[in-house]
Amino acid sequence: MRDYFFTVNPATSDQVFFGPSNYIRIESCAVPLRISINDGRSFLLSQGEAVKIAPFERLDFSHTSGIAQPVTVVVGKDVEKISALISGVVSGAVSIAQGTTQNHSSVAVSKTVAALLVPALATRRAVIFQNWGATSVYIGSSAGVTAGLGIEVPCGAFWIEDIAAAGAWYAKQLNNLGGSSLASVVAITELI
């Protein structure tokens, strides 16, 4: 899977070429996007939503907002294990081979400093993060994680990482419920 960043202008249909693919997920966009395939089908997707469709090489993007919208998408081909958060529900699966070790832990995440969820570990095949807190947390691969540089995991939701699972992962709470200083708790399951 690969990330793409581009801008979709208002009142137009912007065409983007990706190469052979059959999966797209909207990582970030402030408004819903109409995605049209060259066979005439189209989908309306919002941030965090994804669709696996017939193979495509290019897509047309449009929206009804009156201003240009920056967009980040993840596009892939032959995606069987999807590292995706789709509408607050885990989508896809991580296959667990016999003899796989599972390490369980939890970390308190606040808005003051990014918390190290898991250190880098070359033998880690996947990691599952679950937000048990009352507000969203943002997960990223550096201590400088922000809303723009992280993956939002809403309260009660999961994130499965199986592409870059061996790296270090951090989390930060960027807003607090009602100004509360309560930390969110992220439960972690590592598959090694």
Write structural notes for this entry:
With 192 residues, the chain is mainly β. It folds into two domains: 2-79, Jelly Rolls (Sandwich); 102-191, Jelly Rolls. It has no helices and 16 strands. The strands form four sheets. Strands 1-6-2-5-3-4 form a six-stranded antiparallel beta sheet, with no helix packed on it. Strands 9-16-11-14 form a four-stranded antiparallel beta sheet, with no helix packed on it. Strands 10-15-12-13 form a four-stranded antiparallel beta sheet, with no helix packed on it. Strand 7 (84-86) and strand 8 (89-91) form a beta hairpin. Mean pLDDT is 79; it is low at 80-94.
What is the topological layout?
Elements lengths: L1 E7 L5 E15 L4 E5 L4 E4 L4 E13 L6 E8 L7 E3 L2 E3 L10 E8 L5 E4 L7 E6 L5 E4 L10 E3 L4 E4 L7 E4 L11 E8 L1
Supply the key terms:
mainly beta, 4-stranded antiparallel beta sheet, 6-stranded antiparallel beta sheet, single chain, Jelly Rolls, globular, 192 residues
What's the main sheet like?
Answer: 6 strands, antiparallel
The arrangement of helices and strands along the chain is EEEEEEEEEEEEEEEE
How much is the average pLDDT?
Answer: 79
Shape: globular
Count of strand segments: 16
The CATH first-level class of the largest domain comes to Mainly Beta
CATH topology of the largest domain: Jelly Rolls
What structural category characterises the helix and strand content? mainly beta
Question: Which percent band covers the strand fraction?
Answer: over 45%
Residue stretches low in confidence (pLDDT < 50, at least 5 long) are 80-94
Query: Taking strands numbered 1, 2, ... along the chain, how are they ordered across the largest sheet?
Result: 1-6-2-5-3-4
Whole-Å distance between the termini?
Answer: 22 Å
- Fraction of residues in helix: under 10%
Question: What is the H level of CATH, i.e. the homologous superfamily of the largest domain?
Answer: Jelly Rolls
